[in-house]
Structure formats: C-alpha cells, structure tokens
Amino acid sequence: MAERLIYLPLGGAGEIGMNAYVYGYGAPGKERLILVDLGVTFGDMDSSPGIDLIMPDLTWLEENRDRLEAIFITHGHEDHLGALAHLWPRLEVPVYARKFTGTLCRLKLEEMGLPAETVKFVDPRPQVIEAGPFSVQFMPVSHSIPESAALIIDTPAGRIVHTGDFKLDETPVVGDPFEPAKWSEIASEGQGVKVLTCDSTNVFSSHPGRSESLLADPIREWVMAQKNMVVATTFASNIARLKTLADAAIASGRKVCLLGRAMRRMVSVGFETGVLRDFPETIGPDEASDMPRDKVMLIVTGSQGERRAASAQLSRGRYLGLSLKEGDSFLFSSKTIPGNERSVGRIMNALSEMGVDAFDDQDGLYHVSGHANRPDIEKIHELLKPQIVIPMHGEHLHLREHVQIARGKGLKAEIATNGTMLELTGDAPRVIDQVETGRLYLDGNTLIGAMDGIVRDRIRMALNGHALVSVIVDEDDNVLPDAWVELMGLPERTRGGDDLARHIEAELAEFLEGADDKLVRDDKKMDDAIRKITRQVSMEEIGKKPEVTVIVSRLTAD
Amino acid sequence: MAERLIYLPLGGAGEIGMNAYVYGYGAPGKERLILVDLGVTFGDMDSSPGIDLIMPDLTWLEENRDRLEAIFITHGHEDHLGALAHLWPRLEVPVYARKFTGTLCRLKLEEMGLPAETVKFVDPRPQVIEAGPFSVQFMPVSHSIPESAALIIDTPAGRIVHTGDFKLDETPVVGDPFEPAKWSEIASEGQGVKVLTCDSTNVFSSHPGRSESLLADPIREWVMAQKNMVVATTFASNIARLKTLADAAIASGRKVCLLGRAMRRMVSVGFETGVLRDFPETIGPDEASDMPRDKVMLIVTGSQGERRAASAQLSRGRYLGLSLKEGDSFLFSSKTIPGNERSVGRIMNALSEMGVDAFDDQDGLYHVSGHANRPDIEKIHELLKPQIVIPMHGEHLHLREHVQIARGKGLKAEIATNGTMLELTGDAPRVIDQVETGRLYLDGNTLIGAMDGIVRDRIRMALNGHALVSVIVDEDDNVLPDAWVELMGLPERTRGGDDLARHIEAELAEFLEGADDKLVRDDKKMDDAIRKITRQVSMEEIGKKPEVTVIVSRLTAD
After folding, report:
1. What's phi and psi for A60, nearest 5 deg?
2. What share of residues in chain B are helix, strand, coil (percent, to 5)?
3. H helix or E strand, kind and range, residue A503
4. Which of A396, A459, A468 has the CB atom closest to B462's CB atom?
5. Mean pLDDT throughout B31-47?
6. Greatest Cα pair distance in chain A
7. How far apart are CA A437 and CA A20, in angstroms?
8. Which residues of A touch B348 (CB under 8 A)?
9. Which CATH class is domain B465-554?
10. What is the spatial distance between Cα B32 and Cα B68, in angstroms, rounded to a whole number?
11. Helix, strand, or coil here: B377?
C-alpha cells in the first residue's frame, strides 16, 4: 500500500490550550511519527475544581510509541511545553527546541528528576533535524515570548509549515522581526508548501496586528505621569514587554524590582541564553521598600488575577515587605483571558479600596496581542501559497472561520479537531480516522482521567453537598437500628428549624428497624435504600438532594 | 437631638447586583425608614457552588422593622426585585411600584403563596406616595426594561433623587423617552436637589450612550441577509429589543416564535399592563417546526449561556421539537456579563460544530447598553445640580471613579459601600456608622448565611475531595481495630498503583490497635487523630490532603 502523510491533533484543535500535534509518514498504520508541542491548559472551578493542570491524553501515541521519532517544541509558553515533564516518561524520545525554549524545557525536566540532556538545542534554519522521514527546520517568528519558531517540516509527500503561535511584527523589541522575503523563500524552495498548519487564535480580529514597539511611548508616558509607586503586571514570559516596562521605569528615574518566581526565572533564562542583553539592573524587594515611592517600579506576576501571584498578594496587603498605598498606580499591561474576568476584577476592586489607581490595557494602548490577526493570517496564506490549510490553535469557531477564509481563496482546507486524523497525501485533506482523545488532570501529584468520575464527584459534592451515613451490621447479620449521619456542605437546620442530620437518622432508624434479612445481607440493596431515604428526606426538608455515601460496617466475630 | 437624614446601602454598593438601599429620617437611632429595591445576584461555581440566588442580609433592617414604612421598587430586573418574595415575610410593609414592575412583583409573591395585594401600583409623578417623613414620586427613565423609574424622595432635610438604573434615551422604542426639561424641572422645584444617588455601572464608558432605536436598521438588515432559520437571544425583560427583533422578522417575511418561560412571561405581562401594544403575532414551537426554515425567527432566552435556557438547549440538540441545522444563523443581541464568557463561548462553539453561524453584538451593532455612560452621568449632574452625589450600583472602582468625577466639578461626594451609613443632613455627606451586612444564599428552599461555612465546605470538598472514615467503639469503650474508609472525589489508586482507601484503612487499623483508653473515650481526640492520619497518608500517596469526615459510632448496650 502506498505511503501516506497524516496529521492528528491530540490537543489544541477545538480549544485554546494544551497543544499537541502529531504528523506521520509511511505505510498506513506504520507511519513514523513526530509530535509538535506538548502543552497544558489550566483548570477552573466550573469544570475541574481542584485541578491545576490539564494535559492531553496521549494514549494513542503511547500505544504507537515505537513509531515516534522525536518531539519538537515551538516556543516556551506553558500551553506548548507545560506537559513535557509530566508525559515525557511515557514517550522517552529526543526533544528539540531553540535554546531559550529548550532551557525552559530542561528546567522542567530537572524539577521532575528527569534527564535534561534529552532536550537538544537547535539553531534556526538552515539547521535541519532529521527525524525518520521528516527533515525539520526552525523558522524564527515573532510572538509574545522570545525565540518562537514555526517548523518547516519536509516529508517525501511535500513540505509542511507548522506556524506555532506567531504574529507579524517587524519591530518586536526582543527577538526576530518578521521579514516577508524569508517567508516567500520557503514557498519558492522545491515544490513549495503543501500544507500550512496555522494559528487561528485571532482570526476574528479584523485589523492588522500591532507591533510590540508601539507600546514604548504610551507606557513611558504613563509611567512618567504617575506620582508615587508604580506597579505593572504582564506575563512573565513576555520578555519584550518586561524590557519595555523596565525601560520606561529607567526613563522616569525609577529602579526596577521584579516580583514573582516566574518573573525572575524568565529574566534569568533570558540572560543565560543571550536573548536578553540590555535589561536594566534590578533591585530586590528589601531595597525597593527603602526607596522613595516615586523612584520605584515593581514588575509583577499575576496579570490574570491568579490568587497566589504577586499582584493578588499586593492587592490583599503585603508581599515580601512591600505594600501599596493611596496614590500608587497599577498597570495591567495585558489582556484578560476569557474566564479570568472575575479574578482580575477582584484585584482591580481591592486596589480601588486601597486608593490605588488601576489601569488596564485601554483598548490596546498598553498591550498588543502575540497572535496574528485575520489580515496577518491572510498575508501568510499569500506568502506561503500552500495547497492545503489546516487551522489549529483555536476553538471550533476559530477553526471554522479560518477554513472559510482559506476556502474563499480557493485553497483546500479542513477542520480537524482533537482526534481527527487527516490524510494529506492527495490534493485535498481527507478525514481517515477518529482517534479517541481526552484530557488528563494533574491532581496533587497523580494524573487522573478527565472521565474517571473523580472530578464529576467533586462537582456534585460542590453543588449538592454530601451526606454520610454509617450503618452497622452485627456478627449475626442483624442491622443495628441506629444510623449515624454527618453532613458536609449542607444546611444544619431545616426551614422548620429541625436538625437535619437527626431528622434523617430518625427516618433511617425507622426503616432499619423493619428491614428484612435479605436486604440487610445485600450491600448494594442496603446502600440503595439508605441513599434513597436520605435524599427523599433532604428534598422534603431543605428542597435539595445531596450526594450520599453509605458505609455499612459489618462486624465479624474474631 | 436634631433630626437627621441617613443613607445606608445593604446591597448594590461595591458590587453590581442585589440592590437594596435604605433611607431614613428622624432623631438619631429613631429614623423612620424606607427601602429602595430588593434584588438578587446570581451564584457562581467559583464562590458559591450549588447556590442559585444570593440576596442581601437584612438583619439590620429586620431589627429595625418597626421603623420601616415601605419598600419602593424602581424596575423589574432581578437585581432590583428578585429577593422581594423571599425576604418580604421578614419585613411585611407595603410595596410600591409602577404597574409593569408591580405586576412582576405580584407574580413573585403569588408563587411563594404571599399576598399579592401588598404591592400597590403607582402612577408616574406627579402622584406622591407618603411614607412617614418621605414623599416619594416615580420619575420615568429609560433603561433596558419598560417602566423604569428614578425616585424623587422629598424629606424635611431636602430632596433626594435616586436614579435607579437609567440611560438617556430620547427614542427608547418602548417606554418613556429622556426629556432634559423634565429633569431640570426637578432641580427647579423648592430648594432643588440635595442628594443625587446615582447609577455608576458604565462610568468607565467614555462615549455618550446609544439609543435603542439605533439597532432597528442593523438588526433588520442582518435578519434579511440570512438564508435559513434565524435565532436571536437577548434578556427576556428587554421588551424594546424583543420588539425590534420581532419587527425585523416580520420585515423579512418571517413568523416569530418565542422560546423560554421568561420570554413568554415578559411579553404577556407587557400586554397585560399596556406597555406593549403593537407586538407582532407569534407562533408556537409546533407551528414553527412545520414552517419553511427561512420563514421563521426564534427569539429565545439564555443570552448569558445559562445551561438550562432555550439557547443552550438548542445548542445541545433539540428544544421543544425544534433543532438547528447547518446554514442557520444565531444572533446574540446582548452583551456578555463578565464571568459568563466561558458559558457563552460553549454555546458559540456548539453552534459552530453544527455549522450554524453565530453573531455577537459586533461592537454595538446589535446591542446597546441600558446604563448611562460617563457623559450621560455628567449630564444628569448638570441637570439636577445636586449638592451631594452618592454613587451606587457599581463595584468599588466604579463608585470611586464616579466620586472623582463629581468632586472634580466641585460637588460633595462620598463612596459608601454596603453597610456604610452616611448622614446627609449637613452640607457634605458624613460616615456615621458601619452596619454589619452580608449575603444570604438560597440553597434548595433554605436561606443560609454566606458565612455559615456550608458553602466553604462545598468549595473545600470540590478542591480537595472528601474522605469518610467510620470507626466503631463497642459497649465497653473498646475501639474495633477495623476502620472503614470511603473516598469521594479522590483518585482510587496511588501513583504506585495501591488502593488508596485500603491503604488508609491499614494505617488507621495500626493506629487504632494501639490507641489508649483515654483517647478512645474522647470523640474530639479520636476525630483529630484519625483526620490527621488520613490526611498524612493521602499527602504521601497522592500529594493531596482531602477533607475528612470521621463518624465514630458508639454502640450502647440496649
């Protein structure tokens, strides 16, 4: 059977987060594989309480692990590399990345006690990594973190360009500028570009994207206008932004103090890898608290309102000896990711209560996006002239819009969400399989399946409360008529003022008193009957049916 | 001691939601009181899982109930009247509202088996309601629901204007237009306006607010451009919008079908009270499903992504026999309230998966706000020329901004959040007391306090899981060495593959075996020791400390 080129997203397609894309080439079912990116997404109280990190379920890849050649990481954002240290032990293949990204990968592996040297540093194109039938080059792109790369993946079936996250920025402050000629070159080599797998995040933004360098003047002017202490927050990994903020501080006669572990780590990796050269000298929190307030700028983590980050801690009071006062100013040089509005709002209001003036991105004055907008995406279509466009890095509606744009220009395009395997060998993409995919939750230090029911039970307890019933069956299979009931997350008193737990106990005692031997001997039947009564009584008394756990303790003569 | 005028927000100041504002006049501590609005806010999974409705804790008012004269409801939104039926039994005073609002109040009271006639219908000014020392008139204002009113409250200490929610709309489609002359008139009567208590929701919007009537053309054009079935969603109470949408349907040769209980109820109350006169005839879902798809427009509830509303149900499949298909179109004629982005996003993506084109408000083309923007607020300052401005209906940062605007114009202004009692008798507002306030949660059919710990326990179970331990102490105060452990919302297996519950049981058995008599006789000590072991073992095995409930069953000889 003829060899074929396949594409299979295991994460990141039909969602924004936990990117993981597989390419394969070879005889059907025997394709040699590479994985592009291995990221996480973050949990939330609505759908995954108690879960910090969510990552793709790689079962399919693990089952085909002997066919996997390598992992390529496009850039250092958590949604592209955050799962590497957790899932690498299931794959154990070499990892390739540019130096800044690779250093971040190595730090993560080391923290988990894994071998850092599994991550190989790669130079930008023309260096080529051979991985089975794939020849891969890293093509520098601008994004909101240094050293992002698109991958140029040459295969016997033609050239793929996998953009990773990108924007078109000719003056990105830090890192490689966008140069249209370099993109045209990619299209002009060999047979040109067969497949473009392309970032879709900002496909609904109709104006061309704006350069990072546009922020320097507004941010400097803003800092200079402030009279007391200045605090700014942004993503720690946005090193260009850190530099813009720090430069503004210096221009206004302020010293810079970086707060938050991620902030200090990113700057240190930036220096170590050479991506950051002329960052101003910083001071520590002790020194900062001794300075006159109008001579300091804090640059802090927590732009999304994260509860434990520096910005949230400052909004609640002190952080490392520093505290804000009336007349201070706080800038969110960031965009609030949908879903984080309440957390960010909490901080803004807490600052307001202290008399601190909070400023947000003011419709773009103090923030630009790291992703290509619609006109930029179209420009890349034009420069690369691909035969096929596969949108990725987007929710379903982004992918769908991107497909419609591509088709509108006569390009072949297909929506492939997580688990949809496409064949790309022919003139147009073809869906050839649906692979089971899913999510893994990091819970404490354990990886659990999203569908294991554990988180579902937590959500149910949160919504309905939890009633616990303990019943004892003695050595002679007689049930003791006492039932012990404890409630958690439920009102103690009924509307009528009764004690709810005692009320349930009384109803259960009455039932147990008359329970026949057959029922008492059957755990399942006992459990069902007790649960039913508990829920019924609760419904009558408080209008709510709790989750119920029954423990039947059977005494044994010993 | 001299008589005084006081203001005390019990809800709605320092938050957007659950409005409840008290005014008082009389000798200190003996002021006669009125309450303006009695609304709810909605729970969310982050901070109040399992709670549908949140309302102000009226303890202070209940303790001073003999001083309360009446309740005035400014308009029919849930955040202004939603708590009435739940809390009226604690107050039992007459309720005054305009007819449309009053009818909604009566429906709510009737549903709870309370006397509807306690709600009195009031005509707009010049009708005056006398309530103790207060003379109150309802002044029509525009908002996103018919028959909204500002209250003109005359007191021996001067005139108060309490705006309620308002915008300045000279062409509001349904209801009373904004007429500047009428506002000037209020300022010119008697001594003019002493206090303006003013909506602050949109204080950060710098452009003047836009009229409801501006939407007619874009919405009609949008509907006419659609080829198959059209669905639109907005707040059911926005009757002007319903009319604009329905008119657009008729103009494009479509019949209108209203879906969702709230939608039908609002239109029916609109007809009954005369606020809605020329709404097009509607068809039922059966008839709609028999019509050609391009001859129907569904107007549905659920613009905020509410899980049980018509829009969410349609996005998941069928609703009352109707279902959407590829090529249909769906319009959110609404703004997503911060915090609801994920829910709305879920619907947009589900529609995208069906091939339905979803449209949102497109930066205002298909939606206008019901609240006054900054220039509108300033206009009201100018027309009413108040001596004192008290911002309400806003989070802290809105109130603070509004105070700064007022002070910038030389007006006296003060931030008063929930529980802050102001004296308004003098030339400037003065904080005279901090009253304890809080929130009540409607849980099932029971009102519980936000600080009762019930919801805190639910959140903890959701984050940490719940381990249940049952231990038995026999008639002779000997503890049985077996402990029964059940887990809810926790991984069954440790990283090493062990059964976590059995592992905890084994550790507990070992402890109980050696437990001394003193400990066994002490419930609290037993509980603490068992809890500690359970949490320690879990931490070691899964990296997580669960909530633990211990049931010690003490057998009695009987």
Report:
1. -60, -45
2. 35, 30, 40
3. helix A500-513
4. A459
5. 96
6. 87
7. 11
8. 395, 397
9. alpha beta
10. 6
11. helix
B353 Cα to chain A: minimum distance (Å): 7
Query: Can you tell me the ipTM of this complex?
Result: 0.94
Give the per-residue pLDDT at B558. 55
Instruction: For domain B4-207+369-452, give the fold.
Output: Metallo-beta-lactamase; Chain A (3.60.15)
- Give the sheet arrangement for strand A158-162, strand by strand: A129-131, A134-141, A148-155, A158-162, A193-199, A388-392, A412-413
- Topology of B212-359 in CATH? Rossmann fold (3.40.50)
* A480 closest CA partner among A513, A456, A453: A513
Q: Which residues of A touch B461 (CB under 8 A)?
A: 458, 461-462, 466, 488-489
Number of other residues whose CB lies within 10 A of the CB of residue A90:
12
Mean pLDDT, residues B209-235 taken together: 97
Write the residue in A443, A446, A495 that is nearest to B446 by C-beta: A495
Summarize pLDDT for B410-448 with one digit per residue, the tens. 999 999 999 999 999 999 999 999 999 999 999 999 999
Task: Give the pLDDT confidence score for residue A558 in this predicted structure.
Answer: 55
B115: tokens are 């006397």
Contact state of B45 with A50 under an 8 Å Cβ cutoff:
no
- pLDDT, residue B1, reads 63
More confident of the two residues A478 and B462: B462
Shortest distance between the Cα of A193 and any Cα of chain B, in A, equals 29
SS3 assignment, position B197: strand
Handedness of CA A260, A261, A264, A270 (dihedral sign): negative
Q: What pLDDT sits at residue A1?
A: 63
Q: CA B395 → CA A202, B47, B209, distances in Å?
A: 30, 17, 20
Contacts of B489 in chain A (CB under 8 A): 50, 454-455, 457-458, 461
* Cross-chain residue pair A484–B45, CB shorter than 8 Å: no
User: CB neighbours of A298 closer than 8 A, spacing ≥ 6?
Assistant: A229, A230, A231, A232, A257, A258, A259, A288, A310, A314, A322
- Provide the pLDDT for residue A547: 98
- Name the nearest CA neighbour of A196 among A379, A395, A16, A434: A379
Identify the pLDDT of residue A176. Answer: 87
Which of A470, A527, A538 is most worth mutating to test chain B (most B CB atoms within 10 A of its CB)? A470
Closest CA to B38 of B79, B75, B66, B69: B79
- Low-confidence spans in chain A with pLDDT less than 70: 1, 557-558
The helix or strand, by DSSP H or E, that contains position A354, with its residue range, turns out to be helix A341-354
Q: Where are the domains of chain A?
A: 4-207+369-452, 212-359, 465-554
pLDDT at B557: 63
Kindly report the CA angle at A232 between A227 and A233, in degrees rounded to 5? 165
Tell me how close the Cα of A142 comes to any Cα of chain B, in angstroms. Answer: 28
Q: How confident is the model at residue B357 (pLDDT cuts 50, 70, 90)?
A: very high
Chain mean pLDDT for chain B: 96
Closest CA to B504 of B460, B472, B454, B548: B548
Percent above pLDDT 70 for chain B:
99
Structure tokens at B524: 């609290």
Handedness of CA A337, A343, A347, A348 (dihedral sign): positive
Q: CA A357, CA B403: separation in Å to the nearest integer? A: 13
Of A46, A461, A542, the CB nearest to B445: A542
**Host H or E run for residue A537:** helix A523-542
At A47 the three-state DSSP class reads coil
> E strands within B349-452?
357-359, 388-392, 394-395, 412-413, 420-423, 430-434, 439-443, 446-449
Residue B375 neighbours by CB distance under 10 Å: 13
Cα–Cα distance measured from residue A396 to residue A416, given in angstroms and rounded to the nearest whole number: 9
Angle at B534 between CA B530 and CA B540, to 5 degrees: 145
Identify all chain A residues contacting B339, using CB atoms and an 8 Å cutoff: 341-342
